[in-house]
Write a structure and sequence with these properties.
The structure holds 2 protein chains of 2 kinds. By secondary structure, chain A is α+β, with helices and mostly antiparallel strands. Chain A has 1 helix and 3 strands, in the order αβββ. In chain A, strands 1-2-3 form a 3-stranded antiparallel β-sheet, covered by helices on one side. In chain A, a hairpin with a 5-residue loop joins strand 2 and strand 3. The longest helix of chain A has 11 residues. Chain A is extended, with a radius of gyration of 16 Å. By secondary structure, chain B is α+β, with helices and mostly antiparallel strands. Chain B has one domain. Chain B is built from 3 helices and 5 strands; from the N terminus they run E-E-E-H-H-E-E-H. The termini of chain B are far apart. A 3-stranded antiparallel β-sheet of chain B has the order 1-5-4, covered by helices on one side. A two-stranded antiparallel ribbon of chain B has the order 2-3. Classes of the chains: A alpha+beta, B alpha+beta. Strand 3 of chain A pairs antiparallel with strand 1 of chain B, so a sheet runs across the interface.
Amino acid sequence: MHDSESDMFRPMNKNEEYCESLKKIGIDAEAKPLDTDVEKEDYYSKYFANSPAMVTNHGVIKLKGSNIDEVQIIQRG
Amino acid sequence: MTQDLNPVPWGSQDRFQAHFIVKTHHDVSEDDFLARPKLETKGYFASKRVTGVRWIGYTLADTLNSDAELKNMMTRLSYEDAHITVEPTKGNIRIYGKWKDSYNFAITKELFAVYDRIASHIKRELGSPPVQS
């Protein structure tokens, strides 16, 4: 008896997942590998008191044909 | 060895955020690009809806307040999604919303349209032509 689900699956990073959701709404998006220039900068300016001290970077998505240049995915903690 | 009765929670939480970044390419006055909306709402709990938006901040906030279509678009967003922050960091201006858990972490067409419109105002303020999308 075979299960209907495939035994193989491809694990996706969070930025790849988000990139897919951008593509679904018709945005030209491409998930980039880690270590781009944006990731080396501060994620928050500390103007707001509730900015988290520790975040995990999940990488960057490059957008084309939009006023937004890049999307960075971060996780709290 | 006894187990710690109050273990310290550590590690990443199930809270994600997407920062929509506009690159500045040159030094800008950071204060000018700080903006946050003050929302007027109607109803309570799950039925809470946004009825009006007033941006608080400096130069960019004034520009966003003068865009009636942006305010109209924001009233169509959910109360959670309408909490948008515009925050400049070194070399970038970041537009982001509230933290979301992995189950709800996705983008809608309406929310992206609002982010893109805010980004178009930022580009205009930076002196570069906005992209018509």
